[in-house]
Amino acid sequence: MNPFANERLMLSLLGRDAFSGDGFADVQPGVFVELCRRHRVSSLVYQRADKAISRGEEILPDLRETTRKTLVDNLILLKALRDTAAVLSEEGIGFVLLKGVSLLGFLYPEIQLRPMTDVDLLIREKDWPKVADTLRSRDYRMPPEAEERYYGETWYHQLVETPAAPSTHLEFHWNLESVERSRIDPEELIRDAVPCTIEGEAFLRLCDDHLLLHLAVHLAHHYASPTLLWVEDLRRLVTKGVLDWDRIAETAKAWGVENCMAYSLGYLERAFPGTLPPAARRFRLSPARSLILGAFRSENPILPHRPLEGRPLRHAVSMILLDRWRDVGRYVAVHSTLRTARATGVRSTPWSEKKP
Q: Of 125, 161, 217, 278, which one has the greatest count of Cβ atoms within 10 A?
């Protein structure tokens, strides 16, 4: 019996190591396909599965179907990006691509290899009112007033729906993470952004160093239900990107995300041993935090720990693992105040408007 045979086959097809032919006897095709879908790597697995394994006829049709759907979905999202970019350009509003869409053509040469659920754009917070007015005048569906106020006070992005059918979602960010949990400087991100080309169109994306930090923070803050696709994003960037590890370390310290880096790079090395260069191994959780993480240990090779989604203590575990102690206190204080303000009907002052 090969424990976690489905998981080990998936890692093998993503490029970790050779999969034993004997082990395929323990793979359950239906379970394997669903696992690939859940971790959003069906297209990547399909790319190699027909050449790498026997009994491919039992899994290839479903993987092919998912790959085709990803291609169609991504083409729709890219059209929405082009249309929105044209609208914003008319008004002189700049933006930087974030997350999945920024990886197309860079880490993923074929657009169907990297599934996306929406398009993420980084703007300056001061530009949001102009963005909202511009898109509203073009029949984009904007967030309701209460929702816009809530996200403006509490988070760092707004969700917009495109007018075309089928409609898609755009997320306009003015930061990469809540300002209580990090010290990220959006102006630095925009200043250091680099050109990229997607399907012949020119855009801007985060520079490689900032991109690595962002992907690591994003993966860490989704610790409750991690997705292997985000680990694959990191693996490809570590392998292909031009990275200054000293600068990354200095920036991680300044942003307060060193624990996020340690968590996510540790997850990457667990899933794909030997990926991290020596310079990346400086990011380590403290003994106390490592002990806490060890309490949720899992033998599953595609997970960093047992799933925590739905557990009452999941938020506490996240803060204890990832945040600096003073930031935990800051986060709790700010969000307690916001909840009280909403309960009493008093409008609180957004973080960006508060005096330092």
A: 217
